Amino acid sequence: MDVGALILENEGLIYKLAHYFSNYVNIEDLYQAGCIGIIKASKNYQNDKNTKFSSYAYSYILGEMKALVRENKPFKFSKEIISLKSKVEKAKTLLTQKLMYEPTNEELSVFLEMPQSQIDELLKNPQLNSIDDTYGDTNMLMHEIISMPDIDLDTLIMLKEVINNLEEPDRTIMIERYYEDMTQCEVAKNLGLKQTCVSRKEAKVLKKIRQNV
Predict the structure, then answer these.
(1) Does the bond joining 126 to the residue before it have cis omega, within 30 degrees of 0?
(2) How far apart are CA 2 and CA 9, in angstroms?
(3) CATH (domain of 174)
(4) pLDDT tens, position by position, for the chain (213 residues)?
């Protein structure tokens, strides 16, 4: 296979995936990672006419970009730590309004009933993302990701893209589960369905998305 031609044919796909991570890595570095993905995919692709090369190469391209991002991105903190940072920041804003001056870390410690050493650590780390920041170039807020059940990033991205095209009640189920932090039982009660029905529908949507990743 002509690898150069394959790269040119799939440039649109490479740049589309690259933009998901452009906040963390230079776009051209991501493009190069995507090209490596194309090369690796071309070595293993079997042209049986049932699978388009672009569909086959998708996971290779994304995999190389994710590996690059893992080496460069500042998002290396747990959800709990990010949530705590948000709690401290909100308390700081609230106390500033009440006291008419910026509170000290000691005052924050008393107000939140948290060890001052923990607050010192949270506030001194400039790389720690705020809960109101977006994750990469996905247009998803950190609080959305924190509230979501654990699913991999590529599935999360695909869910964001396809959710408005889902039919009811699937669309409402996925929104309430992944963006409104509701349990399956809560969703079931809201829609007048059984919990097992909600579980099956959620799993079916995620399976369909992952098959296309």
Answers:
(1) no
(2) 11
(3) 1.10.10
(4) 678 888 999 998 898 888 877 666 788 888 999 999 999 999 888 876 677 888 888 888 988 888 887 776 544 445 566 667 778 888 888 888 888 888 998 999 888 888 888 788 777 754 444 444 444 444 444 444 434 445 555 666 677 677 778 889 998 888 887 766 678 888 898 899 998 899 889 888 888 877 765
* Residue 166, both tokens: 């889902």
Residue 51 and residue 212: Cα distance in Å, rounded? 11
Task: Please give the residue range of the domain that contains residue 8.
Answer: 3-72
- What token pair was written down for 71? 């080496």
129 in a structural domain: no
Contact of 11 with 129, CB cutoff 8 Å: no
Residue length of the chain: 213
CA distance 209 to 83: 28
Residue with tokens 């939140």: 112
Q: What is the pTM of this model?
A: 0.39
Strands (E), 69-196: none
